C-alpha cells in the first residue's frame, strides 16, 4: 500500500531525512531531502528542540511511517564518546517519531543480507540504480543511504 515515509540516518549531530511517497513497487517519489542539525549549546535543550522539530515535520507532512538506520557495533571494540552521543540523538529521533507514527529501525548489515544481491554500499554508490529507484526532487549522494532504507523496508515487507 502506497504511503508517505521518511528514512533517517543519524551521524554525530547531523540527521539526514529523506521524505518520499513509497509505492508498493517501482521508484519511490522523493518529496524532500533534508539535513537537520543539533543546535549548539546545552545538549539537553538541543535534544528538546530536535524532538519538537521531528514531531512537527512528521505531523505537518502527513508521514505514515519512519524508518531509521539503527546503531552499529564498533569494530575496534572501544566505544567512543561520539558514538554514544550519536546513539542519544538516534534515541531522541526514535522517541519523537514514535509519538506520531510507527517507527522501524534497520541495520545496514541487514540491508546487505536481505535486500537484492549486493551489499548496501554497492547500491549506495551505483548511479544507475538511483536513476531507476527514485523520482521527484534531487537526491543528494549523501542521502542515498536514507533512501535505500525506505526501499529496503518496502521490499522486505
Blueprint of the fold:
Elements: E1 3-11, E2 14-22, E3 28-37, H1 43-60, E4 65-69, H2 81-98, E5 103-106, H3 108-114, H4 120-125, H5 127-133, E6 134-136, H6 144-155
Parallel strand pairs: 1-4, 3-6, 4-5
Antiparallel strand pairs: 1-2, 2-3
Beta-strand portion reads 25-35%
State the total count of DSSP E strands.
6
What's the CATH superfamily, by name?
Ribonuclease H-like superfamily/Ribonuclease H
Following the backbone from N to C, one meets helices and strands in this order, namely EEEHEHEHHHEH
Average pLDDT number: 93
Stated plainly, the CATH topology is called Nucleotidyltransferase, domain 5
Radius of gyration, in Å, reads: 15 Å
Tally of helical segments: 6
Order the strands across the largest sheet as they lie in space: 5-4-1-2-3-6
- Percentage of residues assigned to helices: 40-55%
Number of domains as seen in the coordinates: 1
* Shape type: globular
Uncertain runs are: none
Termini separation: 11 Å
